[in-house]
Amino acid sequence: MRRKVDQKGSIMVEAALYIPVVFSVIMALLYLALFNMQEYFLIYEVQRASAIVSREEAYLGYEEFGMGENNEIDFSQGSGVPSADKVKKYYEAYFSSVSRLYRELGYFGAGSDVSSYGTEFANDITTHALISMGTISSPEISVKTGFLGSNVTVTITHTLPMPGILEYLGYESSKTIRTAGYTYSVNSTEFVRNVDFALDLVAYIFEKFGLGDKYKGALKKIDEVVGKIL
Question: Between the CA of residue 163 and those of 18, 45, 168, what are the distances in Å?
Fold first, then answer.
C-alpha cells in the first residue's frame, strides 16, 4: 500500500506565493479600467464645455439659460425646458446694446484670448470625477472670435498616481490624462444679417458718391456669373 502524502504544507506555501500575485494583478486591472473610464469621462467634459461655450459665444444671452450647471449638455424634455422668464431674459440680453449685437466688428482681427469660462465647469468636473486621486486642472478654454464665427478649444489634464504594483511592472510613478475638445460656432442668422447690412452700407456709400447705377450694374453682372456657375 502506498502511503498518503500530507500536502497541506505545500498548499499553504503555494497559496502564500500565488494569492498576493493574483490579487495584485486583479487590483492593477481594476485600476487600469478606472483609468480608462476616467479618460472617457474627461472626453465628455471637454466636449460638453466646448459645446456650451460655443453656443454662448454664438448666441448672445444664452448664458441666461444656465446650461451646464448640472453636468448636462442640452435641454431635456419636461422640467428641462426653459421657463418663460428665462426666455425673456435671453432676448433682453440679446438686444441689450448695439455694440453687442454687432460685436463681430470689434472682434475682427483681434486674435485669440483666454476666457473666464473655466470656473463655470470646474466644480462639475471635480464632483463627477470617477477617480478623485491626483490633480484635476480647471478647464483651459480658449476662444478665438472672428467675423464669421468663433473657434473654441477646451483642454483638461488629470495627473494620477500609479499603484506600487504598476510601478514595479515598469509604469511611471504618475500618469497624466490630457483631453481636448474643439468646436467651431457660427450664428447663421447673424451672418446673413451682417452680410445684408454690409451690402446696404456699400450701396449707401456708392449712392452718396453718385455711383449708384454702376454699383447696381456690377451686382447684376455678379448675379449673372453666379447663375451660370450654379
Answer: 19, 26, 9
Residue type, 68: G
**Confidence band for 95, pLDDT divided at 50, 70 and 90:** confident
Average pLDDT, the chain: 75
pLDDT tens across 156-170, in order? 888 887 777 667 767
Contact 104, 187 (CB under 8 A): no
CB distance 141 to 114 below 8 Å = yes
Is the pTM higher than 0.85? no
Residue 117, C-beta contacts closer than 8 angstroms, at least 6 positions apart: 49, 53, 56, 139, 141, 143
The domain spans of the chain are 8-75+85-186, 192-229
Contact 57, 185 (CB under 8 A): yes
Residue 184: strand, helix, or coil? strand
- Cα(30)–Cα(25) distance, integer angstroms: 9
**Bridge-based pairing state of the strands 140-145 and 150-161:** antiparallel
